[in-house]
Amino acid sequence: MIENTNRIAAFTSSDIFALCTNDKTGKGIGSKGQSYITEKKIELRMNRSVDVETYSRSMAWGLFLEQRVFDLLGFEYELCSQNTDSHPTISHWSGSKDFIVPGKRIAELKCYEPKNFALYTDAILKKDIAFLREEFPKEYWQLVSNSIICQVPNAEAITYMPYKSELPIIREMAENYDGADQWKYRFIAESPDAALPYLPDGGYYKNLNRFEFEVPKEDKDFLTSRILLAKNILLS
Fold it and tell me: Domains (ranges, CATH) in the chain?
């Protein structure tokens, strides 16, 4: 396992929602966030992640489809999910956005399996920031965190599930992929349709769904204050 040093003992965008939970007073960090801070304290002492590298088909599926979605989004986007950025002035705060339009917005892609795809897609299609924050806090605060780290005003939530008619293209991409981690994506080329997440063509849902919004200043301020509080606990 190759450690990503920018993530060791750092509060990362993908899990930062835990710091937005409240304790019984409503002013401090809740139990989920306290547990997260404890994990980061352990990482600080061990100088390594508390996690070990794992593999799942659902994770591999999402990673592999980033290139497919990038091809669909347009030239203004940059695919940068393999890069981890640190906050420019606050240490122990980092994140890996999926896409960026420099100076304008970051975007996070979710290629969930059918049920979660439908639920999250329904949420972003409401185009209601308060609803997204309440019902999908993990995804919402990841968007907020990466927008702050990258110093852009907007964030964009994206879902993607290929139409059945796209599966031959995606299988061909998997067959032609020659990276060092080729083994992770072999199942895409070899699995029958029924074993892959896909949408029937012409149904209710579109394959690509997007919700761009200006990140509220009050949410940026709130998250920043929680990071600073968590950092003080981490280093105490």
Answer: 55-216 (3.90.320.10)
Can you tell me the distance from the alpha carbon of 62 to that of 188, in angstroms, rounded to the nearest whole number?
11
Half-sphere CA count of 126, side-chain side, radius 13 A: 14
Q: How many CB atoms lie within 10 A of CB 174?
A: 19
Q: What is the pLDDT of residues 144-168, one digit of tens each?
A: 999 999 999 999 999 999 999 999 9
Paired residues of 211 in beta bridges: 157
Which of 121, 118, 116, 106 is CA-nearest to residue 213? Answer: 106
Instruction: Give the Cα separation of 228 and 232 in Å (integer).
Output: 6
How far does the chain reach from its first CA to its final CA, in angstroms? 29
Q: What is the 3-state secondary structure (H, E, C) of 37-92?
A: HHHHHHHHHHCCCCCCCCCCHHHHHHHHHHHHHHHHHCCCCEECCCCCEECCCCCC
Cα(142)–Cα(145) distance, integer angstroms: 5
**Can you read off the two tokens belonging to residue 164?**
């059945």
Whether the Cβ atoms of residue 145 and residue 92 lie closer than 8 Å to each other:
no
Q: Which two tokens stand for residue 28?
A: 């401090």
Tokens of 170: 């995606």
Per-residue pLDDT reduced to its tens digit, 17-43: 999 999 999 889 999 999 999 999 999
DSSP structural state of residue 29: B
Nearest one of 156, 141, 101 to 224, comparing CA atoms:
141
Q: What Rg do the C-alpha atoms of the chain give, in angstroms?
A: 19
